[in-house]
Every structure is written in C-alpha cells, then in structure tokens.
Amino acid sequence: MNSKPIGVFDSGIGGLTVVRALMQRLPHENIVYFGDTARVPYGPKSSQVVREYAAQDTDFLLSQNVKMIVIACNTVSSVALDVVQKRANIPVVGVIQPGSESALHTTKNKRIGVVGTLTTILSNAYTNTIRQLDSSIEVFSKPCPLFVPLAEEGFIEHPATELIAKEYLFELKLKKIDTLILGCTHYPILKNIISKVMGESVRLIDSGESASAQVEKMLDAEGLRNPSKLKANVKFFVSDIPHKFTEVGERFLGQKMGVVKKVHVE
Ligand code: DGL
Q: For the whole model, what pTM was predicted?
C-alpha cells in the first residue's frame, strides 16, 4: 500500500511546480501526475465545468491506483474540493487550506493579499478559509490572469511581466498587506518580479509548497509514508502534448521530465 504513488492533478502544466515541491520534500514518494493540457486553462471557466473536469481527472488518478490525491490546481481546489473528496475514498489535499494557514502564520499586521485566476478569486475560497481560521484578518484579492501565459511563455524577468505585475498589484500595495498568497500554480515561477513590485516587506506564500508540507503531515498521520529509500518513480500523463511542452514543463519542474504519456480523459 505505502509504495503506491501519490496522485497529483492540475489543469495543465502548472501543477509541476507542486510536483517540484513534493519531490524536494518527499524524495522517496512515487508520484503519478496528470495535467489536463487539452482543456487548460480552467481559470476563466465556470465552476460547473471545472467541477465536471475535476471529477474526470480524479477518476483517471484513481485508475492509477494512487494512495492519496493532491489537487495542485488552485482553481479546482477552490471550487471542486468536495467533488474530489466525494469520489476518492483516500486522503485528498487541496492547496487552499495549507496556503491559508501558512499566510496566517506569516502575517504580522493581519492584512493578507491573494492573487489567482478569475474563478479562484470569484469563489472567495481563500478569503473564506482565512476568515474562518481568524475573523480578525483582512483579506484583499485580485485576479491576475495574464500571469499564466507569461509564465508559460518564459517571460520570467521580462519588462512586459513587470509592467503587468505593476498594473495588477498596485491596488494590493495600497492596502498595506504584509503577506501575499500566490494562489495559482504558475505564479511561483514569477515570484522574483512579484516580490520586486510588492517590495521586500511583503512575504510571498507559495501555496504549492504549503500543500507539500500538508502532504507530508497527512502521510505520517495516515501511516502512508513509503518506507523505501530507492529513487522515486515519477510518471507524467497529459491529455495533449502541445508544442514546447517539454521545454515549459522542465522549467516548471526544475529538472528533466522523462517520459510523458498522452491519455484520453472524459
Ligand atoms: N492551474 C491553474 C490554477 O492554479 C492555473 C492555470 C489555469 O487557468 O488552468 O489555478
């Protein structure tokens, strides 16, 4: 049972930032990743459609005999955590709760910002979770949809990205937040520019990193840790292999990807 893989899914390639965090923290855990590259992006889609896709993505991971599911996608975690939990009779970790808890432990002035896709921000998932944990916290949020294609395009330290970051983030700067949740798989790729624009006094929370800490805790709590000390086996599945897939994927993963298999999910 414990050598079974952890299943991770995302709307596309962005969830590889979460796989990267998991591989660093839990190098002996086998992983199966599914990226729904044929239907990405989920960020501008309605909750109803995202919930349908999330159910199908979950079924694919369950067919791979995984021991736990990690929802790397903030958009899915925001609007479809219950769908995944209901379908899977195994532990499920989304990114909203761990990201919210990290932000709460980090803020000193009780003013937290959240950036994410349109659907994530409109769902108020981060705001509600944070305020349930501590109702004295003020939360300010802003959708930043253009960060997704900029990160995929490799515009990492690019003046165009800085200009757009300034445009998106100036409202949050005026709110005097001291903590900003990067509530989207792609945003950690742009953290240097986001940090430059927000200024040194604002601490950035990578919700994927927070989720990987939560996965570690849950593996221990459920007695599911892989006792093997062998190098882990990481398998990648996608619903389409678009141009530049490997180049972008390796940038997000921070290392070579190995074999990527295309599967049909519906
Ligand atoms: N993975 C998505 C998220 O974290 C971003 C990309 C998309 O819009 O599908 O919200």
A: 0.97
